[in-house]
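Translate sequence into structure tokens.
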Amino acid sequence: MRLDASYYDEAYFRPGPKSDFSLPFTWEVQAAASMKAAIKFMTMFHPENALDIGCAKGFLCKALLELGIDAHGCDISEYAVSNCEPEVKGRLTIADIRDGLPYLDNSFDLVCAEATLEHIEMEFLPYVASEIARVSRNHIFIEVPISPDDKNTPYGDPSHRTYKSISYWISLFYNQGLLCDVSRSRLDYDAYPYSAIALHFTKLSG
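Result follows.
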């Protein structure tokens, strides 16, 4: 069943039964992790601009901006975008990626989706992957929890919909003309059922 956007309200972004957050979802709590990710992206990809899909309140966008990267974001949550960090107001867009991304082709040097794609029902993922490929000029970075046995058994956050194997995610994006760069990916994982991998893709024609 397609999860409605209204699920991601104020209650979702605080500890409680709607999500797996154990701490308040604030810049003060998330700043160090957001800046670490931003520095990683700057060092690895040297983007002039970037899009964060599933940006929530824009913490990663704020960190990227502090590094001089023209950062934009989109998220399904009206609450999160409306309560974003002041530095990124006007840079975030409310969008349900199951319906497409509101950006032109080849708009961004880097498109990232961390802790986002597991919220998408499997039937929408081929289209979502095609949209991610469409708006990226070259680099795409995703982070997803996985199921080593390839059984779709979501765990943790009640809004999670898809847990698949590494091979599933690599094939999903390969079918959209994207090649997994193993040297820039993190393929090791801990014990099932909740462990995450990070995958970097580039366009085959890039």
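Note: Residues 62 and 88 are 6 Å apart (CA to CA).
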